[in-house]
Amino acid sequence: MRKITASLFISLDGVVADPHTWHFPYFSDEMAAAVVGDVQNSDTFLFGRTTYEGFAEAWPPREDAGGEDAGMAKDFGDTRKVVVSSRELDFTWRNSEQLQGDDLVAGVRALKAEGGGKNIAVTGSVSVIRQLLAAGLLDELRLLVHPIVLGRGLRLFEDGAGPFPLKLVHSETFGTGVMNLLYAPADATDASKQR
């Protein structure tokens, strides 16, 4: 069974919206290594429509330009991209497809059950991550916690969501003050030990 891993840039107060407006002052080689590692350990990306459209607009021109991040842009282009949407989508970015069927949970279970392969990575796509957590389908959650309080914006967890017991698998603090936290689901015995 393949693993599903999700990665998010997040503020101290839980905001995940519009990281392009607050994330870049904290970007470093350490963070790049963590993000690239997640990409290299995956052979499939699972996106929500909005995040996919942002990536599809940004990355193909970077690949064509041949600049500093052209290699990463090529890796993104070469990787299978599965998009969750209730709308019929028209794809222009290579290796893109729509999740089959209307049931996200059933579609993702089928993806996980595909033989061989590497991980399935979810980047951004907060609504998809929320649904995967609720369905117990998320195997790892990487939070890159930035030392900034934004005060408003879309948060990872909505009021009333959960509980989602998690256990900390790995943690480190980058030189910029960003905490790299990797969580996995906690089973009932893990959760009772945390009390």
Strand content: 25-35%
Helical content band: 25-40%
How do the strands line up in the largest sheet?
A: 4-3-2-5-1-6-8-7
Q: What are the secondary-structure elements, in order, as H or E?
A: EHEHHEEHEHEEEH
In whole angstroms, the N-to-C terminal distance is 31 Å
Uncertain stretches:
191-195
What can you see in these coordinates?
The chain is of the alpha/beta class and 195 residues long. Helix content is 33%, strand content 26%. The protein is built from 6 helices and 8 strands; from the N terminus they run βαβααββαβαβββα. The chain has an 8-stranded mixed β-sheet, with helices on both faces. α2 packs across α3. The longest helix has 17 residues. The two termini are 31 Å apart.
Entry keywords:
disordered C terminus; 8-stranded mixed β-sheet; 195 residues; alpha/beta; globular
Tell me briefly what this model is.
By secondary structure, this protein is of the alpha/beta class.
Give the SSE layout.
Elements: E1 4-11, H1 29-40, E2 42-48, H2 49-65, H3 70-78, E3 80-84, E4 96-98, H4 104-113, E5 119-123, H5 126-135, E6 140-146, E7 166-173, E8 179-185, H6 188-194
Parallel strand pairs: 1-5, 1-6, 2-3, 2-5, 3-4
Antiparallel strand pairs: 6-8, 7-8
Helix pairs in contact: 2-3
